[in-house]
Amino acid sequence: MARILALVVFLFHCIHPNQGQQYVKSETSNQTPTEFIGQSTIAAFDKVQYHVAVFRGIPFAKPLSGDQRFSKPQTLELKNETYDALNFKNICFQKPDDADKCRTGFTQSEDCLYLNIYVPLKVNNNADNSNANITLSNNKTENLAVYIYIHGGAYFEGNGNCYDMGIFSGFGNIIVVTINYRLGAFGFLSTDDDVIPGNLGLWDQHEAIKWVSEHISAFGGDPGRITVGGQSAGSYSSILQALYPGNGGLFQRVIAQSGTPAAKNSVSRVAYNTSLHVAKLLGCDVDGPNQSSKIKQCLLGVNASRLAEVSPHVLAPSTLPFEPSLGGAFIANDPSLIFSSNSNPDAIPAHFSNKDILIGVDAQDGEVAYRLWVLLFNISAATAFTTPMPKERFRELVYDYLSDNLNEDINKYKRIIDAVVERYTDWGDADNLTVVSNKAVEMLTDVFFVLPVRDTAIGHAHNKTTSRRRRDVVSAAGKTYVYKFVIPKSLSSRNTIWWVEGTEHASEIPYTMGNVGNNSDGVKLSKAFMTYWSNFIKTGNPNSNPDKTPATFAEWNQFTVADQKYLYLTNDPAMRANFGAETRHLWQDVVPSLKQLLVNQDSLVKPSPITCRSNRGSHSAISVFFLLSLLSLAVV
What we know:
The chain is of the alpha/beta class. The protein has helices at 2-8, 101-104, 136-139, 166-172, 184-188, 200-215, 233-243, 271-281, 291-300, 304-309, 335-338, 350-353, 366-376, 381-384, 391-402, 414-423, 433-462, 471-474, 509-513, 520-539, 581-601, 621-631; strands spanning 23-25, 35-45, 48-59, 82-84, 114-120, 134-135, 144-150, 175-179, 221-231, 253-257, 356-362, 480-485, 566-569, 574-576. Strands 1, 2, 3, 4, 5, 6, 7, 8, 9, 10, 11, 12, 13 and 14 form a 14-stranded mixed sheet that branches. Strand 2 (35-45) and strand 3 form a beta hairpin.
């Protein structure tokens, strides 16, 4: 994940003040008595200079210290004072990585709950920026829509400081807020009780959202037009924030780029065991009664840098070492079950359905799942990322997705693994390992991104056509927009894994931020992204801003249950239908049928023993016939 952040965010590419720096003052009021001092900067895009005020390092919660390490964030009451918001503040603790300049450019601390605000300024773009110091009350002609961006990083790395939102703010004429939240053990350990309550990183995000809702008007923002969004883990988080009823009317829209908790095992059911494992790795004596308290007391005494470096094993298939945990106030129900195709649409809460959602995938998002898999299962990264994967590893990937626990006997899945691998085989070039490897990435993209995004969109859109029992939802149903991003060949560059062909995870980030240099194709694509995104943030409709001439781009139609339309987002965007239909049929119809078929045949056909790293072996002709007959339905 650090490599992706370094590549697409341009390594601490933050906008800088001009030679003649001007200070910008926020408004004050009874609700926001503090006067925040930021600075005017210039953000350039496509030969246009946008004047933007940047307020850095604003605390949104009380500082965490000492025995508050595993406590929920506490609301910070603003004082009648002036606050210097000229410099970025600390980032949250994470494992050191000297190659990640964005990480090494800031001090890591448990006192890290800070946000940054980008505000477009109404000044003459041809001026020399020699205007006097600006007060935002004199700057605004209207209250601006607001975008709260949650960074990704698999819940264990990243920070909001490194996302330069100056161009996006100026181009879109919106306010953009980036935030920090606790990561790894600090943000996602839990003892499944009140001792370490869990989901602290999500509670941090919620506190930031609440702060913005209460105080963004002091920066010219409209608290009635707030969008929460993010990429990867930030995308997962955005959906979780939308599902959490405690956010109520704090925001109205969601942008989810490459990730949704509708994915299998997206929340942990083994949080206590993870905390116990971390405590033992750090030498804690937690035997005997009151184990939760012993875990907490020991971990409170561990040096923060040491706690940030701990790397627990994965305790369940298709999971991360640290991730949101099921249970408690924040995640009362498993999101993957809420959005399951077999679930009752009425189970999706109204406060989620009523929000507008823009959600989508990158065409080869699954490469990040492979990179994380290599990292977590201690496979040589030097080999895995420089040479195409062998066929045996493809089979292991399928097994790890299908299995219910890490110690499960692979023999029971052998024939299903065979069938899935055959479905994802290019039979015109079946022995080319580069082709095989990219088909494996396609499979990972389908199961971890395409299918969950489709299920989320279906669940969100379903209530627009639901029964009369939910007229309250129908009358205020949010709009649903879905996309698939495919980077054009003219903009293709070497991916993190050289043999991955196409649009890898996080490829869209520089385009959404306008950080694309002067390449004409890149500028065109970035304009499309920033136009659609900013229009949606303002109105809930990506086509609605006449100032940016959306007629030069395809009209983005809403996703509905009937046609499942999505925007094929590239340099010449176009609408397509039936998002992920083939993927859904394979994984939600065919694979369960195969499982049931094997259960029925178990007394007649016994599988031959195999190991996890074996090649596809032989199986009975009658089994192959039934398996492939069912599997062929997946390509209809």
